[in-house]
Amino acid sequence: MQLNIRVEGLDEIIRGMNDPQSIAGPVNGAMQKSAFWIRQAMVERAPVGVSGGSGAGLQGSISVAFAPPSPLIEWATIGPRVFYGVFVALGTRPHWPPWGEGSPLREWVRLKVLRRGVRPRKGKTADAEVRSVAFLIARKISRVGTKPNPFVRDTFQEAAQVVPGFFDDAAAEITENLSRG
User: Fold this and answer.
1) What is the pLDDT of residue 96?
2) Alpha-carbon gap, residue 80 to 173, rounded angstroms
3) Which pTM was predicted?
4) Which residue among 31, 39, 64, 136 sits deepest, i.e. has the most Cβ atoms within 10 Å of its Cβ?
């Protein structure tokens, strides 16, 4: 799940100008400012996983990729790079997730248990406790699925209000540049 921003049609106009940077500079600046603003807003909304916001996991995977300027940056893609980002954002239907040894669910439970300092119940080892909790979570997911966390949608809704202002500023700068000759 990603947001794509595309600027079309200005390349031909810019190539025919004496000073293409008078347009390309402000447009590229607005594109970069928009993309990095969206990325930061998305990181702030993304759920904090077991890494505790250390830069690993979903939050750390949110990135920006730009098309090479020619002379304009024609597009930018912003969003999580991890495969499970879409499942966090949209939720899932009921299913049995893998929960055995080495599975992401088991590792997530292990990190949660270790971070919280949870002690195993009497007569159970730490591994047995992790296995038991992972099974219970998998069983719950098999019955009800997972709830969506609409961090991407919410970011884009706010961006729809903020980003046009960056391009309005760029248009004002272009007007000023062109009026100077």
Assistant:
1) 96
2) 32
3) 0.78
4) 31
